Each structure stands twice: as C-alpha cells, then as structure tokens.
Amino acid sequence: MTTPFVPHGSAARPLRILLVEDDEAHARLATLWLEEAGQGRFGIVRVERLSEAVAELAAGAVDAVLLDLSLPDSDGLETFRVARGQAPTTPVVVMTGNGDERLALQAVHEGAQDYLVKGDIDGRLVVRALRHAIERARAEAAERRLLQAQRLESLSLLAGGIAHQLNNLLMVILGNASLAATALEVDDPLREYLVEIESASQQAARLARQMLAYSGRGGFTVRPVDLNEIVHSACAAFTERVPAHVAVRLELAPAPLRVAADETQIAQLVLNLMINASEALGPEGGEVLMTTRAVDAGPSDFERAYTTPDLPAGAYMELVIADTGEGISPDVAEHIFEPFFSTRLTGRGLGLPAALGIVRGHGGAIGIDSTPGQGTRVRVLLPAHVEDRAGKGDTGTAS
Questions:
Q1: Please, are residues 220 and 262 in contact by the beta-carbon 8 Å criterion?
Q2: The pTM of the whole model exceeds 0.90
Q3: CA-CA distance, 62 to 51, in Å (whole number)?
C-alpha cells in the first residue's frame, strides 16, 4: 500500500513581516504598533524601496508584506504587481493615502489580502489585518497542497498498477522472444527481429521500474550506507558523459552520513536529480553544485516539501543539488513531480517523479526552491540511520 504525499504545517515561531515604507514617521509608527499590539508575535524587517523589497522576497522566509504603494522607485499598482510577481504566494497588505482607496481596492482585486488607509488606522487594525492575511494565505496554500497531494497520490496509484501489468506482459514477450531465438539457426535473418523485440522490451522494463519507483512500490534492499559515498560514485559515473559546458562541483560533509537505504535506489535518485539539473542549464551551460550534511530537521523543514505522513523531527542527512539554470515558475513547480510532465523534451518527465517515489519510500522529504532567472535548488532529507539519530557525526543547522 502506498503512503500519501503529505506536506506538513509550519512550526510555531515569530512571524516575519516585511515593512516596505519610505516615510520615516510612518515606518516608526507601524513598527511600534507591530511590536506593542503584536505582543512579540512579529519580527519586522523594514526597507524603503521596492528594489530592496524584491531582494528580501527573493531570499524567502517572509510571512507577510505591509506595502506602501508610493515608493521612491515605484508608484501605484505597479508597486504591488512587482512585489506579487516576486512572491506570488506571500500575503500582502497594501497601505495608501486617503485619496488612493481606488488603487487599494484594485490591488485587492488583483490578489492583495487587504488594504489599510494611512490616517484611519491604529495598531489593533494593522495587527488584525496582518494576522487575517496570513491565516487566509495559509488556508489557501493548505488547500492547494491538499489538492496537489491528492492528484499526485492518484497518479502514483495509477502508475503502480500500470507498471505491474506492464511487467507481466513484458515477461511473456521476453520469454517467448528468447524461446523463439533458440529455435532458429545462428545465421537465420529472423534473429535480427527478435533482437529488436528484446531491446525494446528491455527499454519498456526500465520505464516500468521508474514507474514503480514513483509509486513507492519499487523493490528495496535496505542496509546502512554512506550517503557521501553514493553521491561521489554517482557523480563520477555522471561526469563521464556530462556535456562540456556543465561544471559539476561537490561539497560533501567530511564525516560519513549513514542512512538506512537501498543503495541502488539512492544512486538512481542522485543520478536523476543530476540529469535534471544539468538539463536545466541549457546550451549556454553553467554549474551544478551538490552538497551534503547532517541536520536536525523539524516541521519548518517539511513545510514546503513532499513527505511521508507524520514525518518526525530529528536527525536527517541532507542532499542539496543546486543549478545555475533558468529556474522554474510557480505554475510549473506545482506539476514538477507529475509523471511525464516536462518543459523540455516530449516523452521525458519520469526523473523527478521517480526521485519523489524513492524519497517517499525511504521515509524522507524532498522539496524544490526555484525562482525564474535564479536557478533551482532541490533539497532531499533522508532519516539518519537509527544508531546515528542521537546526533553523531558532522551536524549542522537546517536552513
């Protein structure tokens, strides 16, 4: 039986508010309101220009934006549109002057969670608007993740069923092709056709294995293995056929990172991710960086990842594969783990789904962080071997 794809909720922590306000007096007042009326629930980061806000949003870890529409480098709805374009899922509460309510309403129509009119607000209203905006955004995100998880689970069950049936048919085809070959003379011209049948059947069998991996039903032989060794070996095999315009760099933890895993499956996981990263670089080339370390992971690490249900906090071994490619849009990211979804070549698209199935089968988590024009970062967390979960080895802090 397969386990569903379940994203986890966020850990309790101060909410990080990005205050975008160039007027010093208004900024001081808003900060005071958030500190006093918020009762320690908010951490405030203030910037004065839209360009600075975009940089903060690109860095991530912003729970909500309190955005003045009139800034030194932007004005009106364009301010909101640029901010939302940078972080489409981050809730935004816009602030306007008394004569600009029409703009504020238009911003709400285009996706802002709420608006406030300067001069008609106090600390209680600001805090309430931000809290409601964050709660609504989280509810919407949870609904999107649930629908996506249900869609992926349905595809997983379908893929597993098809793969099993395909394997049964392939056994018949390969068996009969082999029997037919033994009945022919060595120089019989019909042998050429049987070789073609066997070759195509073997390719179909590899496809079936990938589908089984995606469904979480692939055969696993679990034993303690060193993640660093697997990454190093997979990288060595990959670099033998990597294009000249792709540079592969490793930054592996100095100490062994032991996980209870199927070595072949984890090697396939690493290879799939490396191929995907190298293809994302395009003909202009770039760099693929692979890093490993031991981390103490918790709910905040699982929040935006696909995991097995009720993944416990504790010791995990982290593998990150980052590329300097073109990145992917949020719309594409929503479908990236679906079988045969690909923005590149027709017929491709099982590498990342198979990676997801392998991670899920090992009780881990996988997530993607990508911004168009800034590359993609895939993060995998695999549970540390049970004897190492007390915190042995080279530990780090999860980001």
A1: yes
A2: no
A3: 15
- 244: which residues sit within 8 A by CB, 6+ positions away? none
SS3 string, 196-264, reads HHHHHHHHHHHHHHHHHHHHCCCCCCCEEEEHHHHHHHHHHHHHCCCCCCEEEEEECCCCCCEEEECHH
Across 197-223, b (16+ Cβ under 10 Å) vs e yields beeebeebbeebbbbbbbbbbbeeeee
- pLDDT, residue 347, reads 39
pLDDT along the chain (399 residues), means of 10: 36 78 89 81 90 86 89 91 88 83 87 86 85 84 65 66 79 87 84 86 77 64 90 85 83 94 88 87 87 89 70 91 86 71 51 80 86 86 77 42
Helix (H, G, I), strand (E, B) or coil at 368: strand
DSSP 75: E
**The pair of three-digit structure tokens given for residue 361, joined into one six-digit string:** 């089968």
Neighbouring CB atoms inside 10 A of 2's CB total 16
Residue 315: other Cβ atoms inside 10 A: 19
117: helix, coil or strand?
Answer: strand
Instruction: Tally Cβ neighbours within 10 Å of residue 43.
Output: 15
The predicted structure's pLDDT at residue 323: 92
* H/E run at residue 266: helix 263-280
- Spatial CA neighbour of 155 closest among 5, 327, 303: 5
> How many Å from the N-terminal Cα to the C-terminal Cα in the chain?
32
Quote the tokens at residue 186. Answer: 């060595």
CB contact at 8 A, 17 and 63: yes
pLDDT digit string, tens, across residues 145-197: 666 666 666 666 666 677 777 888 888 888 888 888 888 887 888 888 888 88
Locate 153 and state its tokens: 């689970």
